[in-house]
Specification:
Elements (H helix, E strand, L loop, with lengths): L1 H25 L5 E5 L12 E7 L3 E8 L2 E8 L5 E4 L5 E9 L2 E13 L2 E13 L5 E9 L5 H8 L4 E10 L1
Antiparallel strand pairs: 1-2, 1-10, 2-3, 3-4, 5-6, 6-7, 7-8, 8-9, 9-10
Length: 171
Protein backbone atom coordinates (compact mmCIF):
# COMPACT_ATOMS: atom_id res chain seq x y z
CA UNK A 1 0.00 0.00 0.00
CA UNK A 2 2.83 2.41 0.86
CA UNK A 3 4.46 1.60 -2.46
CA UNK A 4 1.27 2.49 -4.38
CA UNK A 5 0.95 5.78 -2.49
CA UNK A 6 4.59 6.57 -3.27
CA UNK A 7 4.10 5.72 -6.97
CA UNK A 8 0.93 7.86 -7.09
CA UNK A 9 2.74 10.75 -5.41
CA UNK A 10 5.70 10.52 -7.80
CA UNK A 11 3.34 10.34 -10.79
CA UNK A 12 1.40 13.40 -9.58
CA UNK A 13 4.62 15.36 -8.99
CA UNK A 14 5.89 14.43 -12.46
CA UNK A 15 2.66 15.55 -14.10
CA UNK A 16 2.55 18.83 -12.19
CA UNK A 17 6.16 19.77 -12.84
CA UNK A 18 6.02 18.79 -16.51
CA UNK A 19 2.73 20.63 -17.07
CA UNK A 20 4.08 24.01 -15.90
CA UNK A 21 6.55 24.54 -18.78
CA UNK A 22 3.88 23.38 -21.23
CA UNK A 23 1.48 26.05 -20.00
CA UNK A 24 4.17 28.72 -20.34
CA UNK A 25 5.08 27.47 -23.81
CA UNK A 26 1.42 27.73 -24.91
CA UNK A 27 1.27 31.42 -23.98
CA UNK A 28 1.97 33.96 -26.66
CA UNK A 29 5.05 36.13 -26.22
CA UNK A 30 4.15 39.69 -27.16
CA UNK A 31 7.71 41.01 -26.76
CA UNK A 32 8.83 43.20 -29.64
CA UNK A 33 8.48 46.58 -31.28
CA UNK A 34 5.29 47.49 -33.13
CA UNK A 35 4.29 50.38 -35.40
CA UNK A 36 0.69 51.50 -35.77
CA UNK A 37 -0.78 50.40 -39.10
CA UNK A 38 -1.32 53.27 -41.53
CA UNK A 39 0.56 55.56 -39.16
CA UNK A 40 0.36 59.28 -39.56
CA UNK A 41 3.72 60.99 -39.49
CA UNK A 42 4.53 63.54 -36.86
CA UNK A 43 6.13 66.82 -37.90
CA UNK A 44 9.56 65.43 -37.05
CA UNK A 45 8.94 62.48 -39.44
CA UNK A 46 8.50 59.83 -36.71
CA UNK A 47 5.56 57.43 -36.72
CA UNK A 48 2.50 58.61 -34.80
CA UNK A 49 2.47 55.62 -32.46
CA UNK A 50 4.82 52.76 -31.62
CA UNK A 51 4.76 50.11 -28.91
CA UNK A 52 7.83 48.57 -27.32
CA UNK A 53 6.88 45.44 -25.36
CA UNK A 54 8.97 43.34 -22.99
CA UNK A 55 7.26 40.29 -21.50
CA UNK A 56 8.50 37.80 -18.95
CA UNK A 57 6.76 35.31 -16.65
CA UNK A 58 6.07 37.99 -14.00
CA UNK A 59 4.92 41.03 -15.95
CA UNK A 60 4.57 42.82 -19.24
CA UNK A 61 6.18 46.22 -19.71
CA UNK A 62 4.62 48.33 -22.44
CA UNK A 63 6.21 51.55 -23.64
CA UNK A 64 4.00 53.69 -25.86
CA UNK A 65 5.69 56.34 -27.94
CA UNK A 66 2.99 58.68 -29.21
CA UNK A 67 4.12 61.70 -31.26
CA UNK A 68 7.50 61.45 -29.55
CA UNK A 69 6.10 61.35 -25.99
CA UNK A 70 7.06 58.15 -24.15
CA UNK A 71 5.00 56.47 -21.39
CA UNK A 72 6.03 53.16 -19.82
CA UNK A 73 3.64 50.86 -17.96
CA UNK A 74 4.59 47.87 -15.82
CA UNK A 75 1.63 45.46 -15.56
CA UNK A 76 2.14 42.34 -13.39
CA UNK A 77 0.56 38.96 -14.17
CA UNK A 78 0.04 37.99 -10.51
CA UNK A 79 -3.08 40.16 -9.98
CA UNK A 80 -1.26 42.91 -8.10
CA UNK A 81 -1.33 46.53 -9.27
CA UNK A 82 1.53 47.89 -11.34
CA UNK A 83 2.42 51.44 -12.31
CA UNK A 84 0.53 52.92 -15.24
CA UNK A 85 0.52 56.28 -16.97
CA UNK A 86 -2.14 57.12 -19.55
CA UNK A 87 -1.07 58.54 -22.93
CA UNK A 88 -2.24 61.91 -21.58
CA UNK A 89 0.09 61.62 -18.59
CA UNK A 90 -2.45 60.70 -15.88
CA UNK A 91 -0.98 58.21 -13.37
CA UNK A 92 -2.86 55.08 -12.39
CA UNK A 93 -2.58 51.33 -11.84
CA UNK A 94 -2.65 48.33 -14.18
CA UNK A 95 -2.55 44.54 -14.22
CA UNK A 96 -2.25 41.92 -16.93
CA UNK A 97 -3.59 38.44 -17.56
CA UNK A 98 -2.62 35.88 -20.17
CA UNK A 99 -5.75 34.00 -21.21
CA UNK A 100 -4.88 31.43 -23.87
CA UNK A 101 -3.58 33.34 -26.88
CA UNK A 102 -4.99 36.62 -25.56
CA UNK A 103 -3.38 39.20 -23.32
CA UNK A 104 -5.74 41.30 -21.23
CA UNK A 105 -4.46 44.54 -19.72
CA UNK A 106 -6.70 46.49 -17.36
CA UNK A 107 -5.87 49.98 -16.17
CA UNK A 108 -7.59 52.50 -13.98
CA UNK A 109 -6.79 56.20 -13.63
CA UNK A 110 -8.35 58.90 -11.50
CA UNK A 111 -9.20 62.08 -13.38
CA UNK A 112 -10.41 65.43 -12.06
CA UNK A 113 -12.77 67.00 -14.62
CA UNK A 114 -13.67 69.58 -11.99
CA UNK A 115 -11.61 70.56 -8.93
CA UNK A 116 -14.02 68.84 -6.51
CA UNK A 117 -14.90 65.82 -8.66
CA UNK A 118 -12.97 62.58 -9.07
CA UNK A 119 -13.81 60.18 -11.89
CA UNK A 120 -12.23 56.76 -12.32
CA UNK A 121 -11.62 55.72 -15.92
CA UNK A 122 -11.30 51.94 -16.38
CA UNK A 123 -9.79 50.62 -19.63
CA UNK A 124 -9.71 46.98 -20.65
CA UNK A 125 -7.49 46.07 -23.59
CA UNK A 126 -7.66 42.68 -25.30
CA UNK A 127 -4.49 41.96 -27.25
CA UNK A 128 -4.33 39.29 -29.94
CA UNK A 129 -1.28 38.48 -32.05
CA UNK A 130 -1.87 37.00 -35.50
CA UNK A 131 -0.81 33.40 -36.14
CA UNK A 132 2.27 34.57 -38.06
CA UNK A 133 3.18 36.93 -35.19
CA UNK A 134 3.29 40.01 -37.41
CA UNK A 135 0.01 41.80 -36.61
CA UNK A 136 -1.09 42.89 -33.14
CA UNK A 137 -4.76 43.78 -32.71
CA UNK A 138 -5.77 45.66 -29.57
CA UNK A 139 -9.46 46.08 -28.75
CA UNK A 140 -10.00 48.70 -26.04
CA UNK A 141 -13.15 49.27 -23.99
CA UNK A 142 -13.55 52.12 -21.52
CA UNK A 143 -16.04 52.46 -18.69
CA UNK A 144 -16.56 54.80 -15.77
CA UNK A 145 -17.13 52.90 -12.49
CA UNK A 146 -18.18 56.02 -10.56
CA UNK A 147 -21.16 56.70 -12.81
CA UNK A 148 -24.45 54.80 -12.68
CA UNK A 149 -24.23 51.78 -15.01
CA UNK A 150 -26.70 53.21 -17.56
CA UNK A 151 -24.71 56.46 -17.84
CA UNK A 152 -21.39 54.59 -18.00
CA UNK A 153 -22.78 52.28 -20.70
CA UNK A 154 -24.11 55.22 -22.73
CA UNK A 155 -20.74 57.00 -22.63
CA UNK A 156 -18.70 53.80 -23.03
CA UNK A 157 -20.50 52.92 -26.24
CA UNK A 158 -18.59 55.74 -27.91
CA UNK A 159 -15.21 54.88 -26.39
CA UNK A 160 -14.54 51.36 -27.73
CA UNK A 161 -11.90 51.13 -30.41
CA UNK A 162 -9.66 48.67 -32.21
CA UNK A 163 -6.04 49.44 -33.11
CA UNK A 164 -3.71 47.40 -35.30
CA UNK A 165 0.06 47.35 -35.11
CA UNK A 166 2.70 45.69 -37.27
CA UNK A 167 5.59 43.97 -35.51
CA UNK A 168 8.84 45.40 -36.84
CA UNK A 169 11.25 43.84 -34.35
CA UNK A 170 11.29 40.77 -32.10
CA UNK A 171 12.89 40.92 -28.65
Amino acid sequence: MKRMNLVALLLAMTLLTSAEPTLAADSTDYSGKYVAEQPKKAQNGSAESTLEVVQNEKAIVVTLVHYGKRTTNHCPFDGSDGDYTSPGGVPGKCKALLKGKNLIIESIVLTHPQPTTNVRVHTKERWLLSKDGKTLTIKSDVDFPDFPSDVSAAVSGDTSMTSKYTRVENR
